[in-house]
Amino acid sequence: MEREGMRPEFADNRELTLADAVNGHLDWLEATYREPVEMSIATGYFNAEGFTMLADRLERLRGLRLLLGAEPPPSSRRVRKPGDPQAAQLESALVRDELQKEEKGLQRDRDQLDFDPGTDRSVARLLDFLKSGKIVVKRYEKAFLHGKAYLFGTDLFGFPEGAMAGSSNFTAAGLQHNLELNLGRYDPTPVEKIKNWFDRLWEDAKPYDLAKIYAARFAEYPPYLIFLRVLGTIWRRD
Q1: Residue 88 placed within a domain
Q2: Are 102 and 169 in contact (CB under 8 A)?
Q3: Largest alpha-carbon pair distance within the chain?
Q4: Residue 112: count of CB within 10 angstroms of its CB
Q5: Is residue 1 part of a domain?
Q6: Domain range for residue 38?
Q7: Is residue 3 in a domain?
């Protein structure tokens, strides 16, 4: 499908992948507006492979706000037992637990990336972008964050230009592989409401050092540990 001129309304990773939808719309915005546009992304999860799918366009943005959060686990509803904290405190404890699990998940995904020069270049590209000053990363910690949104802004008159909202996380699976449901809106009222939703969460979120997680990829490790990692890569299926 031709990307140029797209204002995608539906992306389910079958008829149209969200990666193609986002890239196509960013191409259209770049061809339509004289100045680079801005973007805001809310996601329950992130990985480097997902960034690579959008990297060419994200690097040409004027700015990007990336909001991370914890998705609620299937068993997030729990019956209070004697001695448990009050409902609000119990919810906060569950959110903290999931945030810790997600951070460990980010580290695990980083450690399981392919051990090859191409992957190193991709991670280095992500780190360069995180340190470029174009992107601000925050994490929402007050509650579970289940909504996902990709919000496009031209900064003309303070109005957002459009949004893709639905089920896709900012990951390779969410952008291309999973069976997802994402709808694009470009009419002012719903897009403004999506922006207001994002802005409220962004204001309450805390700065998050995503670069620190991926910088560990290039830390110095003992030679024997590197040897084991090489063996694990060669014979991982065994």
Answers
A1: yes
A2: no
A3: 62
A4: 12
A5: no
A6: 10-234
A7: no
DSSP conformation letters of 74-135: TT------TTPPPHHHHHHHHHHHHHHHHHHHHHHHHHTS--SHHHHHHHHHHHHHHTSSSE
What's the pTM value of the predicted model, to 2 decimals?
0.86
List the pLDDT tens digit at each of the 238 positions of the chain: 444 458 999 999 999 999 999 999 999 999 998 889 999 999 999 999 999 999 999 999 999 999 999 887 765 555 556 665 555 676 778 888 888 888 888 888 888 888 788 899 999 999 999 999 999 999 999 888 888 999 998 765 567 899 999 999 999 999 999 999 999 999 999 999 999 999 999 999 999 999 999 998 888 889 998 898 888 888 877 7
- Residue 174: give its domain's CATH number: 3.30.870.10
Cα dihedral 106, 132, 56, 169, rounded to 10, equals: 30
In this structure, is residue 41 part of a structural domain?
yes
* Number of structural domains the chain divides into: 1
